[in-house]
Amino acid sequence: MKAIWSGSLSFGLVNIPVKLYSAVNPRPVSFKLIHEKDNSPIEYKRWCVEGKHEVPWNEVVKGVNIGEGSFYVFSKRELAGLRPKRSEVIEVHEFVSSDLIGPILVDGNYYLGPERAGQKAFFLLREVLIKEGRAAIGSFVMRDREYLCAIQPYGPGLLLTTMNYDEEMRSNEEVEGLAEPPSLKKDELELAKELVKKLSKPRLDISRFHDTYVSSIKELLKEREEGHVVQVKEEVPQATSEENLLDALKASLEG
Asked: pLDDT tens, 195-248?
């Protein structure tokens, strides 16, 4: 596995040489935008709205809308000065209970591995985090961006989770439909509990699940390459109404 970042993990006066690796390998289907009438690819152009003409890259600058159609334009020197300075250190600021790393905080996951010179300190930190049930909270710079992160034991090593900053997260208090929850009937609760028990598994086997959207597209392309005409129908599930909720729960248990 090829490392995407290397540096050191620092807490107190301890510096551990480490490498960072991608923990996931997304495999989406790569779509291209096509003109429906003649089946030709669509190109994007840098278009000047005011002058009604295409703009070459060497005349493009970056700016921020400051209101009423006005923009503050940044020079390349300004942007370079504001950019986070390259860092080769993951600096640990504090340790917290692992339970406090809620799902809304998670942005992405990476594996941390030790360099040979830092193996003992790496595994010492891992063992302490396991025994104490703690996660290390730190920060580092990668690809011109400063990340907040949590470091926790995972498998034989450590998992580094990049986290959202407080100002990036939104509250769900303004989500429609949550302000006044409806009253729930006892028999509905009991049947729902039975259905949850029926569908419960002792452990999560993630290998049982696959991206059916990607596999369906690949299968469709294969069928068409072989000359088969395939018709795809969209199936829209109907919402279960309050009147039908009890019947739906009973049918689910019987099925």
From this structure: 999 989 999 898 887 877 777 778 877 877 777 776 666 666 677 777 788 888
| Per-domain residue ranges of the chain | 5-25+86-167, 186-234+242-254
Q: Domain 5-25+86-167 falls in which CATH fold? A: Ku70; Chain: A; Domain 2 (2.40.290)
Q: How many residues can be counted in the chain?
A: 255
- What pLDDT, in 10s, does the model give residues 46-74? 989 888 899 998 888 899 998 887 888 88
DSSP the chain: ---SEEEEEEETTEEEEEEEEES----------EETTTTEE-----EETTTTEE--GGG--EEEEEETTEEEEEPHHHHHHHSPPP--EEEEEEEEEGGG--GGGEEEEEEEEE-GGGHHHHHHHHHHHHHHTEEEEEEEEETTEEEEEEEEEETTEEEEEEE--GGG---GGGSTT-SSPPP--HHHHHHHHHHHHHT--SS--GGG---HHHHHHHHHHHHHHTT---------PPPPPTTTHHHHHHHHHH-
Mean pLDDT of the chain: 88
Model-wide pTM > 0.85: no
CA 153, CA 136: separation in Å to the nearest integer?
A: 10
